[in-house]
Amino acid sequence: MEAKYTEEVYPKAPDDARTADCEQISNLLDLMIDGEASPEEQRFFNHHIEECISCFENHQKQKLLKGLVTGHLKRVIVPQSLVHSIKAKIQETL
Amino acid sequence: MSEQTGKQLSKEEKDARFEAELLPVLDPLYNFAYRLTLDEDDANDLVQETYLKAYRFFDYFEQGTNAKAWLFRILKNSFINEFRKKSKQPAKVDYSEVEGYYNSEDVEGESGVASTTDMRTESVQDLIGDEVASALNALPVDFRTVIILCDLEGFTYEEMAKILDIPIGTVRSRLHRARNSLKEKLEKYAKSMGYNN
């Protein structure tokens, strides 16, 4: 049940709702949620989402997605014997 | 700029520094190995191999530089070069199976009148975590890798580029595609559970 790679997964917003700015904003989404945007990019982004509800919502969704991984993915517990195995292995291969 | 460049460390110095600087990364490193291999034994082997290599090449490690990124890079290279061939294929996730499990949980929850809200909240948290893990595990390993490095381990794009040996532009585009793919899988699941947003 592999997902098919179609050009558009989601229905497109009407053309008049998508400005050139929105296109730029969507390219900045990952940079913003990962803290990698420059100060100018941040200013441009924050100013735009104050006025554009669709980009504001996309930003919320992207933050939520990152939060699901950061906040909900469980960490596995390191087996207690592993440190010992590592040290033993190092000593025996010296 | 490291002090030890050109000078051999004594075994005691080397062991002490290895323990102080590299062993503290064990937890994230094991988690990374587990998310790559999806198997505890394989993760164990991969981590041991990584530390063995790190010890052997410890003279090349510059004190005070990013030990975590250095170890992640070694582990990722070991995984690609040797491990991937022999490790098992990641299990494909069958959503209907997971869904069935949740439904049976629901039935139990409703029949047991005294189920506390605390228990419910906790199990909902668990379910979300399980679902995120399933969706993530179903992604191709390159996509899984960038999401783990970025969202779970908090590496910067620049560090990821070094770990993965790819340009920053490629990190960005891969992360973008990986997130779209993850989003698609989680949305599909949400719809199957009756959530439409």
TrEMBL record, chain A:
Occurrences of domain Putative zinc-finger (ranges)? 22-55
Xref: InterPro entries: Znf_put
Lineage: superkingdom: Bacteria
- What protein name is recorded for this chain? Zf-HC2 domain-containing protein
Q: Which organism is it from?
A: Pontibacter oryzae
TrEMBL record, chain B:
Signal sequence region:
none
One biological-process term from Gene Ontology? Answer: DNA-templated transcription initiation
Looking at the record, the residues that make up the RNA polymerase sigma-70 region domain are 26-88
Cite the Pfam families for this sequence: Sigma70_r2 (PF04542), Sigma70_r4_2 (PF08281)
Matching Gene3D superfamilies, A to Z?
1.10.1740.10, Winged helix-like DNA-binding domain superfamily/Winged helix DNA-binding domain
Per UniProt, the keywords (alphabetical) are: Sigma factor, Transcription, Transcription regulation
Question: GO terms for molecular function, please?
Answer: DNA binding; sigma factor activity
User: Which CDD domains does the UniProt entry name for this protein?
Assistant: Sigma70_r4
Segments forming domain RNA polymerase sigma factor 70 region 4 type: 131-181
Q: Tell me the InterPro entries matching this sequence.
A: RNA_pol_sigma-70-like, RNA_pol_sigma-70_dom, RNA_pol_sigma70_r2, RNA_pol_sigma70_r4_t2, RNA_pol_sigma_r2, RNA_pol_sigma_r3/r4-like, WH-like_DNA-bd_sf
> What is the similarity comment for this entry?
Belongs to the sigma-70 factor family. ECF subfamily.
The molecule here is called: Sigma-70 family RNA polymerase sigma factor
Organism for this UniProt entry: Pontibacter oryzae
